[in-house]
Amino acid sequence: MIAHDIACIPGDGIGTEVTAAARTVLDAAGRRHGIAFRYDELDWSCARHEREGAMMPADGLERLARRDAILLGAVGAPGVADHVSLWGLLIPIRRTFRQYVNLRPIRVFPGVPSPLRDAGPEVDLVVVRENTEGEYSEIGGRFNRGEPGELAVQEAVFTRTGVTRILDYAFALAARRGGHLTSATKSNGIVHTMPFWDELVRERAAAAPGVAWDQEHIDALCAKLVLDPARFDVIVASNLFGDILSDLAAAVAGSIGMAPSGNLDPTGEHPSMFEPVHGSAPDIAGRGIANPVGAVWSAALMLDHLGHPEAAAEVLAAIERVLAAGAPRTPDLGGSAGTAEVAAAIAGALGEA
Ligand SMILES: NC(=O)c1ccc[n+]([C@@H]2O[C@H](COP(=O)([O-])OP(=O)(O)OC[C@H]3O[C@@H](n4cnc5c(N)ncnc54)[C@H](O)[C@@H]3O)[C@@H](O)[C@H]2O)c1
After folding, report:
1. Does residue 259 fall inside a structural domain?
2. Is CB count within 10 Å lower at the N or C end of the chain?
3. Would you say residue 147 has pLDDT above 70?
4. pTM for the structure as a whole
């Protein structure tokens, strides 16, 4: 029996509901594959912020550092500004633990209609988003607040180390998948950082001769992702472009509730964090109807990262089987089932031929 220590941060709203669902499936997969999960359940959230003035305790990051991985639901509540929940929890975790890869796989599953008329199961792509630098930087400021001459400046930060490592990860992933990589750029309008990004893409491509690659300006890429999503395999993008692209691609797949993500430190030196792409969805929270697929698929990414690719593949196959069967499914997919019912069906489908 292999044991893993998992920090579990359910967060707010539907975060708590989908995390419970993910644990149901993880535990069932663990029983089948000889893996035990020990969860350290942490109440870090906007609810905690309202109670105690901080999203997490002062020694929060030290506590996480000792765990093998972090499973997160979602944070966000109407009473706490979104930048507080982001910069008070998620960004410190991503940056302290050098989770420089944000991995966002997207598939149109058989039996799940895409809002795009012609998009079917041939849509199977991964957005690799740079997760620690780029446009999401703290460098900048405001000047002459409230005056007619008021101005705001925010610097984008692209380092050779940061760009090279995300490109190397993306090229290696493309080599293991369909052998094609698309780089998102905007070097016609952004004249310093993006030409630097493009140069490094060319440099790193030379080190990955088995991968065919191209580059697209982000605006054209958004249009192509809607018009012909099946043409893409791996898309590598800066922090901002990757953030936008992956939500767009998740919508193409049918529901934001099904999109997973991994925040990875590929070196394994620090814990990686796994979370569905969606937020805390206050509009449906507390009703037990959130789609758990994004959280369960995130748990599968965690299994893969922890060295259990067979268990991970089995969870993904079980998701696929339940979705293809048409029921049970949650209201966002046109069904009437609850979160726990879908999770139990996925757990029950593990290992079915
Ligand atoms: N990583 C995170 O923790 C994260 C990510 C995004 C948003 N947020 C936060 O969540 C809060 C709400 O944000 P939002 O409304 O922009 O985005 P959201 O993803 O929470 O919800 C957008 C829409 O999608 C629906 N939806 C989302 N997940 C679903 C699921 N699993 N099943 C069924 N329907 C689902 C919601 O009902 C809502 O109509 C905000 O406070 C925001 O900051 C957190």
Report:
1. no
2. C
3. yes
4. 0.95
